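Quick one: structure tokens for this chain, please?
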Amino acid sequence: MDFDLQISQYLFQLGRALPAMVVPFLAVALIWLLFAFALYRANQRPAPADKILFLARVGVAAVLGFLFNGLLAYFYFRARPFVDLGFTPLISEPMFLKSFPSDHAAVSWAVAAIIFFDNKTSGYWAGIAAGFICLGRVLSGVHYVGDVLFGAGLGIIIAGLVFKYLPSGNFYFRAGRPRGE
């Protein structure tokens, strides 16, 4: 039995031992709180253009994480653990039966990394939330550990590229308009 499966099976069993609301909160609801935190961080910015830039980076990174995951799943299909191992997941069965890579992991880590690149302290908290989202996905039985690790890595790489290549600073000044307009 491989290492990924051994760790995943241990976490599937642990998920069943936790209080009933813990795993669904981590696996499903926490990602919405992470997005709310990104909105809060955007609102902390003084200039409207900076708010838009921050939200654009968050949105582009999240969407690209989701799209790249779909592309990878097209070339490498891995069934979800509850399908392979024949048990009932602790959350409602996901719409797609692909397990690899985890969309939730890619999106949550893309958002957390954008927050981190913007503000380290807030980024640490966002990273903790993204880590718990990944843990919840495994505890619930809808992903293997390898699925969330790969998704997380992909999300971080995409966020780094988005942060690097989307413009920074004041939009108006960068567009050649003098300050104050």
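The CA atoms of residues 83 and 97 lie 8 Å apart.
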